[in-house]
Amino acid sequence: MATTTVSSKFQVVLPKAVRQLYDLKPGQVLQLICLPDRIELLPLQAASALRGFLKGANSFEREPDRL
């Protein structure tokens, strides 16, 4: 488990192993989720990275005249 320390300016540095594991880049946005017993950081994906993730998810038949 990786650990980090909060600086006097309330900044944290993510360990190199974590940055490499999640392919984090400088300037990348992380979503901060505050839970009662922990804080989670989630890397946000660019909208372009989400393109096509619903491909093949069409689960209903359309009438031929509605295509």
Describe the structure in brief:
The chain has 67 residues and is mainly beta.
Layout of SSEs?
Blueprint: H1 16-21, E1 30-35, E2 38-43
Antiparallel strand pairs: 1-2
Describe the structure.
This protein has 67 residues and is mostly beta strands. The chain has a domain at 26-55. Helix content is 9%, strand content 18%. The protein contains one helix and two strands, in the order αββ. Strands 1-2 form a two-stranded antiparallel sheet. 0% of the residues are buried. The model has no long low-confidence stretch (mean pLDDT 85).
Strand content is: 15-25%
Largest sheet: 2 strands, antiparallel
The average pLDDT score comes to 85
Low-confidence runs: none
Q: Looking at the structure, what is the overall shape?
A: elongated
Ends distance: 52 Å
User: How helical, in percent, are the residues?
Assistant: under 10%
Which features would summarize this protein structure in a list?
67 residues; mainly beta; 1 helix
